[in-house]
Amino acid sequence: MTRYAALLRGIYPSNPNMANDKLRWVLEGLGLDRVSSVLASGNLLFETPERDVPDLEDEIQQALVEQLGIRGGTVVRTLGELRGLLDSDPFPGLTHGRGTYLTVTFLKDGARTPPELPEATDPLVRVVGFDPGARAFLAVIDNSDPGRTPDFMAWLDRTYGADITTRTWLTVQRIVAKLEAP
């Protein structure tokens, strides 16, 4: 069995159709095993025999649309891909917090990968790298000024559309810890 994380885009816990119990119910209905969730922002974990990731993404997304009306987008990663990302230590010496908001933006499997890293369009954003194994941009965002929002996320949305979803580094660490639990 392979362990996976389905990272859903556009989940709002205040929407009753987006509650973790309903999201887990959809994945269980697909025959996925050991379905669980991390936080209330669309991080679903499960096991299944090894599968083609784009097919798995499409199957989950189709079920979410048909059963709950959720159209946000689904990105799937294996435990091995996420563990490899953590082990690469892309943010050495940094701690997630105000001024150093550590983010990971996952591209949907099969999405156009960048030929080179984007240049920072905002002085409050430092693109650290692109991890090809996890298919993810890594960035440090300075969000210490509540009156100014960096535009990196808007650039990613304009460039990749709904084929992305972003998590904090802390959330990725939590997902991996739960996937590795017995």
UniProtKB/TrEMBL annotation:
Could you tell me the superkingdom of the organism this chain comes from? Bacteria
Q: Which residues form the signal peptide?
A: none
One Pfam family from the UniProt entry?
A: DUF1697
Q: Which Gene3D superfamilies match?
A: SP0830-like domains
Task: Give the protein's recorded name.
Answer: DUF1697 domain-containing protein
Organism, as annotated: Ornithinimicrobium tianjinense
